[in-house]
Structure formats: C-alpha cells, structure tokens
Specification:
The complex is a heterodimer of chains A (113) and B (112). Chain A is built from no helices and 11 strands. With 113 residues, chain A is mostly beta strands. In chain A, a hairpin with a 5-residue loop joins strand 4 and strand 5. Chain A starts with a strand and ends with a strand. The relative contact order of chain B is 0.34. The chains are: A mainly beta (113), B mainly beta (112).
C-alpha cells in the first residue's frame, strides 16, 4: 500500500535551515505530484507548493517562494523540502502529500534559540 | 488568493445524527478543463489529514458512503449521515483550481 515516511522532528536555531524528507513506497514515485503543507500549532493548513517527481518541475505558493526549496531523488523515491532563514513563525508541523490522497505522518519543526 | 469560508466553525452532534458543513469560495472553482478541484479532508486528533472527497463529490478509496459531497461554482457542502465516533475531528475544504491552493479554516465536529 502507499506509504509516505517523513523524517524525524527537528529543533533548530533562528536563522538556520532545515531539510526534511518524505520517502514514498507502494506506488511508482514518478506517477504522482507531491505537495507540502504547513500546519502551525492549533491552526489551519497552508499549502506550500508541489513538485513533479517525473520532471522536477515545481509550483510554489508565493508566500513560501523565498523560504522553501523542493527537490526529489528518484533513485530513492524520496522528496525533500528545505526551509531556510528560519524564524519562530516557521515552527509548525510539515506534511508531504501525494496528490492521490495519501499523507505522511508530519515533521514537527521547532525554531528556538 | 481564493478564500474558502467554512461554516459553522464548530458543530456539536449526537451519534447517529446528520451533520452538514458548508464551504463557500470567493471565486468560482471551475477550472478551464471543466473540472472543479474541491476536496474535503478530515483531521482526527493527533493525526495527519485524510482525504474524504475529491472533485466535489467523489469519495476517496475506503471512505464510507455516509459522506456525501455536493455543490458547484462557489458553494459546496459536505454531509455526514449517521455520525459515528470515528467521524469526530476537524474537517477542511481545499481548492486546487487556483494558485495558490488554499484551505478553509476548518470545522470542528464534536459530540454534544
């Protein structure tokens, strides 16, 4: 069955970057777009953007364009999101989602000095 | 950006009741290909969201038929007939017709 396994929680300092992973299994990795979503504590969901694993093409929410970088490694069926110049506003849970409807378990990122 | 307004913010129900959630969009969600990319998700406490409905009214694999999505243009509704304990949580509508894709603020379904 389709599974998305995300990397573990991260505690990072303001101004640093964090790179999180989303390893896919149970389907052909290049067949479906992968989306990334942010959920701040106790709040709703924000769409960050998506990447097409087949072409590498990306589409970002303007709000996150200078903050997030989406990449994939087809050889390991893994998608990555790097978030840069972190502030306390970036403390949240980050999810990956295959456009077919399956979600990873989420990565909690805490930005604190 | 497209704003999705969900009502009510919270909904208290008795098990076995019907529940209805509205999602109103600030723009038409009909895409140039004629499809309407409106989804419904449920997020149970401590879990990732799960897809219930895609393209307004299509149930995702394994979703019970008590979940019914309907609507068109800018007005959409999710109905849950005969609410069961596993239906409790926060429901979100989501549009992928316009960039950036956006979510509604959520509707919390809880027991009376």
């Amino acid at each position: 069955q389709v599974k998305l396994l995300q990397s573990g929680a991260a505690l990072v300092k303001p101004g640093d970057s964090v790179k999180m992973s989303c390893k896919a299994s149970g389907y052909t990795f290049t067949d479906y777009i992968i989306h990334w979503v942010k959920q701040s504590h106790g709040k709703s969901l924000e769409w960050i953007g998506y990447i097409n694993p087949y072409s590498g093409g990306t589409n970002y929410n303007e709000k996150f364009k200078s903050k997030a970088t989406l990449t994939v490694d087809k050889s390991s069926s893994t998608a990555y999101m790097e978030f840069s110049r972190l502030t306390s506003e970036d403390s949240a849970i980050y999810y990956c989602e295959v456009s077919g409807g399956y979600w990873g378990q989420g990565v909690m990122v805490t930005v604190s000095s | 950006d497209v704003v999705l307004t969900q009502t009510p913010v919270s909904l208290s129900v008795t098990l076995g009741d019907q529940a209805s959630i509205s999602c109103r969009s600030s723009q038409s969600l009909v895409y140039s290909d004629g499809n309407t990319y409106l989804k419904w998700y449920l997020q149970k406490p401590g879990q990732s969201p799960q897809l219930l409905i895609y393209e307004v009214s299509n149930r995702f694999s394994g979703v019970p038929d008590r979940f019914i999505g309907s609507g068109s243009g800018t007005d959409f509704t999710l109905k849950i007939s005969r609410v069961e304990p596993e239906d409790l949580g926060v429901y979100y509508c989501f549009q992928a017709t316009h960039d950036p894709n956006t979510f509604g603020a959520g509707t919390k379904l809880e027991l009376k």
